[in-house]
């Protein structure tokens, strides 16, 4: 079996990391892999020994030329299936390229934002099957008219190994200029509106009066950085909230957090939450999208309603005050990751869909 994977993300964020897991896992099972990605994409380096890599221009939704570039790869390498892992034009143009070459095509859907029924009725004709990374996303597609037999949930995974080690607390304090008695809250997300950074800033403004030793590390980059930094300055929180940028060494520090906050308005599943659970960090997140699948309420973390800053503040206060509860939730989260979100389970789930599609097309 030979699979052409199309991933349009240039940085090694959650989605691209999942694609790398799948490619490596499939390679170990004897599946041949091809990857089409943007020129200079981080994932090319990560999977070079597991896949034939084609770097090419991928300019987004208006890049109709992507059809001819992908068609050329399909005709030269003759994959059994085209697996489209991302949007930004890769979904539509990749689907058209697969249709033109009469190659079975699968789309991975990683977001839970709704689409119009008209768009769905046109777009999803391009795909033989759709894989969603959470049951919540699957339900969105079903509500929009995609037939249930055409949609399978295969949840995202995390390799727990990098997150199982003990964190050097002294090194962490030095790296991020933290006081010895700091309670450290982290948020690991792109700096975009739906991730909820603004809610966390509001909550910290309230809590900082009672907990002067509170510190917040914002891991990630994105277009909102200057706006969020301005908000932090205006609220006199610059000594408390720190923007670290995108860190390739995140596994080295994640387990040093006391709490992970992820007050997102929308989320497909939340890979950073799986990573935090692997690192035994308790989580506060919302009941949006697939987040309740990533975090079990009152078992591995605390769930609140999206946009509820008061509830976020109360949940943070509860965990700040209760070290035993933090430990209990974090330990339960790690145990769950080891069994329910393994890379092997995700790889086999994708492979099962491939086989189903190929059997149906023969």
Automatic annotation (TrEMBL):
<protein>
    <submittedName>
        <fullName>Glycosyltransferase</fullName>
        <ecNumber>2.4.-.-</ecNumber>
    </submittedName>
</protein>
<dbReference type="Pfam" id="PF00534">
    <property type="entry name" value="Glycos_transf_1"/>
</dbReference>
<dbReference type="InterPro" id="IPR050194">
    <property type="entry name" value="Glycosyltransferase_grp1"/>
</dbReference>
<keyword id="KW-0328">Glycosyltransferase</keyword>
<dbReference type="GO" id="GO:0016757">
    <property type="term" value="F:glycosyltransferase activity"/>
</dbReference>
<feature type="domain" description="Glycosyltransferase subfamily 4-like N-terminal">
    <location>
        <begin position="14"/>
        <end position="160"/>
    </location>
</feature>
<keyword id="KW-0808">Transferase</keyword>
<dbReference type="InterPro" id="IPR001296">
    <property type="entry name" value="Glyco_trans_1"/>
</dbReference>
<feature type="domain" description="Glycosyl transferase family 1">
    <location>
        <begin position="168"/>
        <end position="336"/>
    </location>
</feature>
<dbReference type="InterPro" id="IPR028098">
    <property type="entry name" value="Glyco_trans_4-like_N"/>
</dbReference>
<dbReference type="Pfam" id="PF13439">
    <property type="entry name" value="Glyco_transf_4"/>
</dbReference>
